[in-house]
Amino acid sequence: MTIATTASGTHYFYNKKEQDIPIVFIHGVGLTYEIWQPQLDFFKNRTVLAYDILGHGKSSLTKKNISFDDLADQIIDLTDELGIQKLHLIGFSIGSLIARNFASRFNQRLQSLILIGSIYKRSDEQQKTVNQRFQQAQKELKLSKQALKRWFTDKYLKKNPDMYEKISSIISSNNMTNFLKLYELFVKHKNDEDFDKIKVNTLIITGELDMGSTIEMAKELNQIINNSKLKIIENGKHLCSIECADEVNLSIKNFLDINEQT
Prior knowledge:
alpha/beta; 11 helices; 262 residues; single chain; Rossmann fold; 43% helix
């Protein structure tokens, strides 16, 4: 197991096993690779790579203006440095948008693709809501902890105060200048990927109760991405990968097993 930072400034966790196609995890905006702990534990006998996206956690961000191409290129730089040519890519929230960009540009590097909590064509009302949250973050220079109410059910937060504190601590530790750069990308995303260039088998996962990345969005993505399957996590919200880890992990495992290189 290796926890390190590349020369270009990407902080990562890498657990390498022999003759495995690595599983690469991309976290959401305002978070760090640590949110994948339930998956890193579950897949401890496989090669896994999780990292902090640009400007998050211990990964640096030096560019004044940033794009989804930059965020996908970060994966290329990291995997090239580690000698990884083929990978299973799993992205959550903005991480799923990074994964979509990566897949539309570097499909040949993928063995499979998994999108968790992925947005698609927000309604006018949904767009208005995220615009207001972004403006609030700009004004207050912090990410509201109310986000946790959207990410987890009340029942889960009540039973898991330690997780509430852990995620709150990650949120509070953000470099707000960098956070706002990426949050703006997320808020203003235009669904402009070339979906026809995504040829790899894809699994689309969303929580039944996710109000930001809705079942309807997931169904539309399922229609527009060729060779894709849809999985709805019962009683899950946005961070169902933590709250409903057992079901999410099993769904991931089954999908990866089907798509392993023979």
